[in-house]
Amino acid sequence: MKLDGKTLWNEAGRVGFVFGGFSSLCLLLKEGAALTGSTFLVQAAAIILWAVEFFGCILLMKKYMLDLRDKFDGVTVMDTYRFGRRVALFSGLILASVDAAVIMYMPQETVESVIAELNTAISSKMGAGYEGEIGRFVDKLPLYTFIGQWLYCFLYGSLLSSIMSRYIFLQGPFQGGDGGEENIDNQ
Question: pTM for the full model?
Fold first, then answer.
């Protein structure tokens, strides 16, 4: 089967949904650990889940790029790179939406305590004139989080797809294009 632009978008959308769901699950597990109130559990969960998400995305990208290469005829390095960028675009959209929703539906008492702590810290260092700025920043925090998370996911996914797309087509250093050994003259 030949890979065309429409098929590439469809495959990337399907895989992006998997990546977005995986990353969103890790995010929700971190938030669940935060609800326990145990500082040790929060920190341990954050570190462990970050590592699971980081390395899990690498392994998933490798798996789905190999699947794309094996499923379609004539897939090139550029096709797998485009696939990875599109996956990053879709998965970033899903994760950024979930992250912004978590912030928007955060309990009001949590938001107020964070604002109070920030106001205290800022007023002791910069004066009382900046206290209102915290409130304006917090009002737009879901938007800033959405944009930042989507940008991070897209850049991380683009870099990862750039590396992985070359990796899955990599040949041995002493193999020619036909898979045979090249004669190397050491003179």
Answer: 0.79
Cα separation, 3 vs 27, in Å, equals 33
Q: Has residue 113 got a pLDDT over 60?
A: yes
Sequence-distant (6+) residues with CB within 8 A of 48 are none
**Rounded Cα distance, 141 and 14, in Å:** 29
- Whether the per-residue pLDDT at 15 is higher than 90: the answer is yes
Q: What share of the chain is helix, strand, coil (3-state, %, to 5)?
A: 80, 0, 20
Measured between its terminal Cα atoms, the distance across the chain in Å is 47
Q: Which residue type sits at 162? A: S
What DSSP element (H or E) covers 82?
helix 77-104
Identity of the residue numbered 100: A
Q: Give the pLDDT of residue 36.
A: 81
Could you tell me the residue ranges of all domains in the chain?
Answer: 5-104+152-167
Tell me the pLDDT of the chain averaged across its residues.
84
CA-wise closest residue to 22 among 56, 68, 55: 56
